[in-house]
Amino acid sequence: MKNDSEQKIEECYCPIQKTLALIGGKWTLSIIRELSSGSKRFSQLQKSLPGISPKTLSSRLQELEKEAIVAKQVFPEVPPRVEYSLTSKGEGLKKVLQDLLKWGTENLKEGY
């Protein structure tokens, strides 16, 4: 059974709509932004994203992993160590984030 996010992505025909359905969810771009500086553990991501619940973070990471935007690496240690990083597909979104930052800086007033 597909979740709402998967259903929305499949229903899109326009590449822009499909992309927004994939990365437009709450917290998704923030997670990608945090991973753009390098690999992070779950706890590091949670700490850098105040207000995100563990359930939401886990869900978003799973969605991004399924779409091959984020890679999950499990290290065979005790206790287990898991790190998340952007894949090459995910790295391609850095330019999108930079463009959004530039546009926001140029066009949005402070305190928006």
TrEMBL record:
<keyword id="KW-0805">Transcription regulation</keyword>
<dbReference type="GO" id="GO:0003677">
    <property type="term" value="F:DNA binding"/>
</dbReference>
<dbReference type="InterPro" id="IPR036390">
    <property type="entry name" value="WH_DNA-bd_sf"/>
</dbReference>
<keyword id="KW-0238">DNA-binding</keyword>
<dbReference type="InterPro" id="IPR036388">
    <property type="entry name" value="WH-like_DNA-bd_sf"/>
</dbReference>
<dbReference type="Pfam" id="PF01638">
    <property type="entry name" value="HxlR"/>
</dbReference>
<dbReference type="InterPro" id="IPR011991">
    <property type="entry name" value="ArsR-like_HTH"/>
</dbReference>
<feature type="domain" description="HTH hxlR-type">
    <location>
        <begin position="14"/>
        <end position="112"/>
    </location>
</feature>
<keyword id="KW-0804">Transcription</keyword>
<protein>
    <submittedName>
        <fullName>Helix-turn-helix HxlR type</fullName>
    </submittedName>
</protein>
<dbReference type="InterPro" id="IPR002577">
    <property type="entry name" value="HTH_HxlR"/>
</dbReference>
